[in-house]
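Sample intake sheet
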Amino acid sequence: MILLVIPLLLFFFFRLVNLNIIPIFADEAIYIHWAQIAWHDHTQRFISLTDGKPPLHTWLMIPWLKIISDPLIAGRLLSVTAGLLTLVGIYLIIKEVFNDKTAFIAVFLTAISPFLVFYDRLAVADSLLTAFGVWSFYLGLQLINKPDLGKAFLLGFCWAGGLLSKQPGWYFILLSPSLLLLNRPKKIIKILLFSAIALTVGLFGYNLIKLSPYSHLISARSYDYVLGKREFLQAPFQLFWGNLKAILFWIYSYQKIIPSLLFLIGVFLLIKNHWKKALTFLIWLIVPTFGSAAIGKIIFPRYFLLIEPWIIIFISYGIFLLVKKVRLLFGKAGLFIIYLLVFLPWLIFSWLIIFKPVKAPLIEREQDQYLTSWSAGYGIKEIAQYLKKNYPQERIDVGTEGFFGTLPDGLQVYLDGYKNINVFGVGQPLDKVPDNLWERAKLNPTFLVINDSRYLGDGINLELVNKFPKPDFPFFKESLLFFKVKSP
């Protein structure tokens, strides 16, 4: 058990150091702002449903906002906590299915996995969903091994948590029967009975959303992101191959070559030695991947964080068997080389994420969303600090590009509680300052916050207060402009 201290220390190091080094981005701004609204107004507890998002992530963020003054840190600490639950769950699964040594390797890999490190440090729901997936697997396995009412309720709570986090939580219920491959159940009737109780608890918990008049938007908005039944049946493979190619590239981009080879070795060896175990883990890996590839109209790399635990399990098994062979042939020196080849690429990648994210080997799609384009919130915290310092009580108006996302939600996140500062969206792109800003400037100090790529005007009657350049990448260059509107 003492050895587990090392991966735990690595986990907290890679999750907590420089937690705010990447600025707030679009989805974080929306989610944290929702949580602030729900915190202050209990009638808005289901506000996330207005955009078709389940509410649990919003609810769980509220306690963190109450105890942490920096809202971005507060939102991200929820993901850190979820990441810790994922680590513990992976350890318990592998200890149950394999052995302590493989479990230790897996915990070490979980602590330094760049994919998990990156998203365990962002205030999005994917880390929470991944944790529920891992614990659905573990608790489902425990229910099969020793069925009882307590395990059924815990599994049901876990299923409800997954469904209330993100829609892919349905996978955890649908894939649970595959766990029967890991054991020969002797009390199948009892297992079915308690599984039915777990399902009832899970669906009852999920149907809490029916308390909101916006519950129907869960399914309505989902069609913005996935194909409907009719669309899918008309052309089942219209999106599949293109999506699958992109997904595999995204997943590989976080694994890199040596871990990817070890994953393939682990799959081969596990199929050879324990095909039922291999098939179970492959089902939990492949079904969400292929399912999303088949129906996903809009997908992002983070949607596939939920399969990273199963990738780590195969890599860990491959390393465990490889280490046994190398130790016999080359002794401790060989072991050192193996660990260096496996762990060093991930350690370097994760190190760059927490100290120099601009230098981290992220693919362009990830760089664009979090570091370079309009969605990256460089300068937003600084603008909020300027406004709070210079206008602590005076009524002011701040117009921003867009109507939701990094702006105006990002500014609203940092200005929570400052009722004298009115932040609102004015749309984008702009070729001139909107008339309502001119009118407001006659009455109150008025500002405009916009990315330079979205402002096409001539700057007349605008005073540039500050400019916040974003990291300079070959494919894009962007800055956030902070103007004071001068009354004409």
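Comment: The chain has two domains: 2-355, 373-485. Residues 292 and 460 are 48 Å apart (CA to CA).
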